[in-house]
Amino acid sequence: MSTTEYQVTGMSCGHCEISIRREVGQIPGVEGIEVSAATGRLLVSTGSEAPADDDAVIAAVDEAGYVAARV
Ligand SMILES: [Cu+2]
Which of 71, 58, 66, 49 is nearest to 24 (CA)? Predict the structure, then answer.
């Protein structure tokens, strides 16, 4: 398992978390998502040694309406 961490700008509530979870969860290989509107942190885990594709995660978060940056 490989986990990568991102800082997300613009989340304010649980609905934001759900939107991000929905979009990022569609990325192939992603098996775990932890997201907190309170801290702005997003943790994305894969089932393999290979980390999640940064570009795909950032694009998925953008699709949800927020901005993610690799920490
Ligand atoms: Cu919200």
Answer: 58
